[in-house]
Amino acid sequence: MPKSFCPKCGSDADVFYDNVCMQCFIGNKKLLGSPQIVYGRICPTCGSVFRRGRWQFGGKKEDTVISFVKENLELNRDASSVELALTSKQLDYSRYMVHVEAKGEIKGAPIDAVMDTEVRISWETCDTCSRISGGYFEGIVQIRADKRLPTQEELKRCVAIAEGVAARSQEKGDKLAFIARTEELPEGIDIYLGLIKLGKQICRAVIDTFGGKITESPKLIGQKNGVDLYRITYALRLPEFVRGDIISVDGTVIEVQGCGKHVSGIDLETGKRFLENFNDLMDVKKLSRRDDAVPAVLVADEGRTIQVLDPHTYETVTVKRPEFLSVEPGNEIKIVKTEKGIFVLP
pTM for the complete prediction? Predict the structure, then answer.
């Protein structure tokens, strides 16, 4: 059987690419190329990376350095099935050497490449870190409570909600959605924000949990490129009522179990569940607190009514029997005395 040979170099060959042997076909072809030196900008505080004209979230420093090289690799347009392996080595504080090994195919012919690229890092403080360090803020969320002081538990949850909203906004790429600082005050807490729209997002999230109302107060602080710059204060007031409050709602006495967009609780006269939209409540008044309850003796259970011994006057008082009552006469129960009368607590 006659031997096949390359018409270009005359070498024996069994496989041809474009009618020449593999060596002649590959010739001076390059699988990929890269500049000898690549430059990158990284924030030393948060690790953000400057790409495509703006600061973006970065990852591990080594991964970021390798990504600078990857972004500058020029792949042969005819290449396919390309596999890359990149490793980095730090030379000094601002210089890295990235070793690149690659293999692939060009029109079916195997080809590989090995190269080293130097990465030079410029350590620059990003816009967000610069603003945080300078105390910059665009908005304030002032958390207060209506006709009372907010509880520490409420304030703690509000801050956690705010931090969660800010974190989710940043994960979506909005780096300026940061909380600059929080200030605890006797009447509540102030949350300073790096972005105006973050304030409204936080208020909505808090209201979804606790209910409440907000008012906005913009303040002109200057101009930039002919555009007015405003700082907005969001005054958020939590609802007046909290769990354990005894309230009168249109004449019905309720022990509050939850107060957000809806008020939930127990009708103390009947023992039935109560659930209404907070904004639909009209004649609402706080009567007492569960903490104000006192022990009293259940004298008699007459089915629809019960008789209770008033612990202060020692008089027997007849009240409606709530559904939740399961105590036998002669035992103690918890009652609360209000201007609407005496009520048994669950």
Answer: 0.62
